[in-house]
Amino acid sequence: MAKATEQTNSPVLVSDKVRAIALTPVSRETEVRLDRYVELLLAWQAKTNLVAPSTLPNLWTRHISDSLQLLDIAPSAKIWVDLGSGGGFPGVVLACELAKTPGAMVHMVERNAKKAAFLREALRVTDSPGTIHLADIGDSVDRISGPVDCVTARAVAPLHQLIGFAEPLMKRGAKALFLKGQDVDAELTEATKYWNMNPHLHSSRTGGHGWIVELDQIERRNQSATPDGTRA
After folding, report:
1. CA distance 73 to 102
2. Which of 4, 38, 74, 203 is most solvent-facing, going by the fewest CB within 10 Å?
3. Residue 92's pLDDT is what?
4. How many CB atoms are located within 10 Å of the residue 49 CB?
């Protein structure tokens, strides 16, 4: 972990952290949790590709702030489901912030065993509320029992497929918040071939071409048509 600690304290990453905290302010308690998470991620990154190496200098703004901003769209949400959590964005970041909220829980679905192991360790070292589901997304959402306030995903699949994965949770009242990039318009156009929906777009606070697609209700346009990657 010595090298990871050195990276964490590098001037470039410290400067990026300052920008990130300004964009998405957090309590000192949450900041400490996020520091532990970042140090762990940098240590594991050497052996497991958790994030694109090119994004490491902007880890705080590119990944952590990008994840934290979801909480401002759904401030009362306590129970989250993160589809395809990968390196923990947004799942672990949300859990770090929600650690101070009684009854909070973040379900993280990840099919890669190494990444799932990382996610478990991240929850342990940050003492954050979450549970890891080692499974394919399509095989797991139906198994998550109890109420769910929000379902989210980041860089996992095209929007029309994500909606299909999230459909069982949204039918139970969950809001969907999907982090998307500059191709969001094309993805929305494709999604409307399969779904009736009224999306609300939020421009990412971290700049660039990022967007958050907010969906409260969806309905299949054709009950017999199933987008690739979803269940009939």
Report:
1. 19
2. 203
3. 98
4. 13
Q: What is the pLDDT of residue 232?
A: 39
C-beta of residue 82 within 8 angstroms of C-beta of residue 109 = yes
Are the CB atoms for 94 and 122 separated by under 8 Å?
no
3-class DSSP assignment, residue 110? strand
Q: Which residues of the chain have pLDDT under 50?
A: 229-232
- Separation CA 99–CA 131 (nearest Å): 13
Would you call 196 exposed, middle or buried from its count of C-beta atoms within 10 A (0-12, 13-18, 19+)? exposed
CB neighbour list of residue 115: distance below 8 Å, 6 or more residues apart: 48, 50, 85, 86, 87
| pLDDT score for 224 | 57
- Identify the helix (H) or strand (E) that includes residue 175: strand 175-180
Q: How far is CA 65 from CA 61, 68, 137, 158, 169, in A?
A: 5, 5, 25, 22, 25
pLDDT given for residue 122 in this prediction: 98
pTM over 0.85: yes
- Where helices occur in the chain by DSSP H, the ranges are 2-8, 11-23, 28-45, 59, 66-68, 70-73, 91-98, 113-126, 159-171, 184-191
The per-residue DSSP string of 42-72 comes to HHHHTTS--S-GGGGGGHIIIIIIHHHTHHH
* Rg from Cα positions in the chain: 17
* CA pair distance 133, 229, nearest whole angstrom: 19
Backbone torsion region of residue 93, taken as left when φ is above 0, otherwise alpha when ψ lies between -120 and 50, otherwise beta: alpha
